[in-house]
Design brief:
74% helix; mainly alpha; Serine Threonine Protein Phosphatase 5, Tetratricopeptide repeat; 2% strand; 395 residues; elongated
Length: 395
């Protein structure tokens, strides 16, 4: 054994603890650098996945988030994002598994668990498992967790199932919780119930639901349309005409929806002069072609074909319309012969084909196009947002 000089012993006593301290310090710095590197790598991967998502590259985003979920199984946000991506891509089964796995974790706090339950409920809705979704959202309401969102989903389920009474009850609960009016939507539900009662010839029930609709939304256009048909069905032509005229006062865009039954009421009441005044007034107030076509047909009966053609031609110069042109061609065919008639038939066929490929209505919320009117948009499920398209090929 080597003997140390006595003078080195005090120095060694000082240096050994210093060396140990230095080793601990540099080891900690190294560990800290490794940890920061790991965090940096996670952050970089997360933002890379987010960038893919924002650039509408869901395949690449899913690949990144899958790796993140495998690397750190405690990251709730990553699993939620991953489940959302699967649902958006239509891979609902995978979304359900991700959210079920998340809910099964014992270390989730209440807020995280309720968010995962809400997401799972949306998965069930997307998969068409409405009974499971209803149970889950009802549980969330009972737990007083994310109640507005849960109620909105429940209302969506009841609309899909046409359970309008439950939809009304839950819409009223939503009103109380949020303080925001659901009147226009509830009015639509009452209109649906009124239509059902009218189809079953339950006229008192149909009227009662319309009264409730007017309470929820005094100027509900649809309620006046339903009322007009209800009065017609009962033989109350004067009341029916008044209801249809009210539609024209509230929203002139919906005149095409009531024009045929309204003119029928006028004809059966012997009020064709009233009908003419009504159509002239509507033409002055709107740019739609339906009242123009209706008035041209009326003139054909009261003033003759020549007067009707002259009126229609003048109007089409002011408001070009393919539908109006078809009507003009049809009126001109009766007085045409030979080559001129053949040319008009070709034009008639071409204009008909132009109209056949065109949407006549469009949702103002999501842009969904349709040939027939829907009170609820089939795409975004918004009520009252589908309106006639104005223009050469439309109204």
């Amino acid at each position: 054994m080597i003997a140390l000089p006595p003078l080195l012993l005090p120095a060694l006593a000082f240096l050994l603890p210093l060396a140990a301290l230095s080793g601990w310090y540099y080891g900690r710095r190294s560990s800290e650098r490794s940890r920061r590197a790991g965090v940096s790598e996670l952050s970089s991967s997360y933002f890379r996945g987010l960038n893919y998502l924002l650039n509408e590259q869901p395949d690449k985003a899913i690949e990144v988030f899958l790796k993140l979920a495998e690397f750190n199984r405690d990251t709730v946000e990553t699993h939620l994002a991953l489940g959302n991506l699967f649902r958006r891509r239509g891979e609902v089964d995978r979304a359900i598994r991700v959210h079920q796995h998340l809910i099964a974790r014992p270390n989730l706090n209440n807020e995280e668990k309720t968010i995962a339950l809400l997401e799972l409920g949306e998965d069930y809705m997307r998969a068409g498992l409405l009974d499971r979704a209803e149970t889950l959202f009802s549980d969330l309401v009972a737990m007083d967790a994310h109640v507005p969102s849960a109620l909105r989903h429940l209302i969506g389920i009841y609309q899909h199932e046409k359970d309008w009474n439950k939809a009304i009850d839950h819409a009223r609960r939503l009103e109380k919780i949020t303080g925001e009016s659901e009147g226009p939507t509830i009015a639509q539900f009452h209109c649906e119930l009124s239509e059902q009662a009218r189809a079953a010839r339950d006229f008192p029930g149909a009227h009662a639901h319309l009264e409730n609709a007017f309470v929820c939304q005094p100027e509900c256009v649809r309620a006046y349309i339903v009322l007009g048909y209800l009065e017609m069905q009962q033989g109350n032509l004067e009341a029916a005409a008044q209801a249809f005229e009210r539609v024209a006062t509230l929203d002139v865009d919906f005149v095409p929806e009531v024009l045929t039954p309204l003119l029928d009421c006028y004809a059966r009441l012997g009020q064709m002069q009233h009908a003419e005044r009504f159509l002239v007034d509507i033409i002055e107030r709107s740019q739609g072609v339906s009242p123009v076509i209706a008035l041209a047909k009326l003139y054909a009966g009261t003033r003759g074909e020549a007067a009707a053609i002259e009126f229609l031609t003048r109007q089409l110069r002011q408001r070009p319309s393919v539908r109006g042109l078809m009507t003009l061609i049809g009126a001109s065919l009766d007085t045409s012969r030979g080559e001129a008639r053949e040319n008009l038939l070709i034009l008639q066929d071409l204009t008909r084909k132009l109209i056949e490929g065109q949407a006549m209505y469009r949702c103002s919320k999501c842009g969904f196009g349709a040939k027939a009117h829907h009170w609820q948009c089939p795409s975004c499920k918004t009520w009252g947002s589908v309106r006639p398209i104005h223009g050469v090929a439309g109204e």
